[in-house]
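Quick one, tokens below. Sequence please?
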């Protein structure tokens, strides 16, 4: 994972008024769906233990959340891959990142 490049990219969004982690990652996810998750409020809440908090710089906070997301994806890679393969067999194409997003949403909204 290109952590330094991601941090620099996230830092570039820091001073854009009205753009937080959620809007930034939703825009970037469309360009790099395999690399960047959508850090909306539901996913951020799920990743609260990886969140450096409001006192952290914008790029540092976003990077901390993405690192936590990647750790979770890596820990669950086999299961997520199995879901991806089954979806592909049924004619649906989703990235592993998007599948984890959907799983997080299903757990967070239900809980």
């Amino acid at each position: 994972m290109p952590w330094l490049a991601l941090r620099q990219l996230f830092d570039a969004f820091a001073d854009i008024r009205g753009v937080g982690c959620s809007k930034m990652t939703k825009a970037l996810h469309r360009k790099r769906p395999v690399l960047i998750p959508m850090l909306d409020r539901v996913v951020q809440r799920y990743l609260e233990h990886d969140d450096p908090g409001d006192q952290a710089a914008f790029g540092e906070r976003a990077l901390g959340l993405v690192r936590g997301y990647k750790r979770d994806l890596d820990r669950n890679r086999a299961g997520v891959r199995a879901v991806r393969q089954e979806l592909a067999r049924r004619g649906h194409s989703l990235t592993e990142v998007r599948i984890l997003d959907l799983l997080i949403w299903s757990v967070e909204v239900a809980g």
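The chain has one domain: 3-110. The helical segments are 3-12, 21-31, 41-46, 58-75, 77-89, 96-110.
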